Amino acid sequence: MSIYRGFVFVLSKGEWVSAHEMTEAFRDFPRVSIMGISNLILIAVIVVIIAAVFLKYSKTGREIYGVGGNRVAARFVGISIKKINYLVFALSGVIVGLAGFLWVARYASAQNETALGFELQTIAACVIGGVSIAGGSGTVLGVVLGALFLGILNNALTVINLSPFYQMGIQGLVIILAIIANTLTDKRNQLTMLRKRKL
């Protein structure tokens, strides 16, 4: 990722696109409202619903969980690991591209360091929302709730005028606690499955 960011900086020569270089329609798109609801919220809700239905009810969605949970077992039941990997990366790219478009349009600025550090917050939202680091478990609703929790936490820390350095420390502590809880839950589930097999 650092190599990629470096190439982007070199190729763009450190220049960035400002508001006056963007069309008015492009800048206004996130602010357009339908029945009082902005495009940003509508698109987010649509993406969440599509992702939740796809992962829970489609064969490919269940295969993604299968590959994440146990690649060896997934291969034995006939799931194409390469196909699923390509699909997951492609879908991630589409969603990231959409998010990038909305971000740039919303803030009317495209810089080389746009959203720097959001990778960690994204992972944190997933872990807090119950997504297993090892893969194979988690829900879209859980991720949404994890993201909302992080957003509320960040806003609360800002409102009480806490130093940004302390804010980073608290966010890091929350992430560590979430990962520990996630790991302990995974181990407990594994032990439960082993006991059931013995019975």
How many helical elements?
9
Distance between the termini: 47 Å
The number of distinct β-strands equals: 2
What is the helical fraction, as a range of percent?
over 70%
Q: In what range is the share of β-strand residues?
A: under 5%
Write down the secondary-structure element order. HHEEHHHHHHH
Label the overall shape: globular
Estimated radius of gyration: 20 Å
Mean pLDDT value? 84
Q: Biggest sheet, open or closed, and with what strands and sense?
A: 2 strands, antiparallel
Reconstruct the topology from this structure.
Layout: H1 2-12, H2 24-28, E1 33-34, E2 37-38, H3 39-57, H4 59-69, H5 71-76, H6 81-107, H7 118-128, H8 140-159, H9 164-198
Antiparallel strand pairs: 1-2
Helix pairs in contact: 3-4, 4-6, 7-8, 7-9
3D architecture notes:
- This protein has 199 residues and is mostly helical.
- 73% of the residues lie in helices and 2% in strands.
- It is built from nine helices and two strands.
- The protein has a two-stranded antiparallel sheet with strand order 1-2.
- Strand 1 (33-34) and strand 2 form a beta hairpin.
- Helix 7 (118-128) packs across helix 8.
- The longest helix has 35 residues, at 164-198.
- The chain is globular and about 70 Å long.
- The chain starts with a helix and ends with a helix.
- The mean pLDDT is 84.
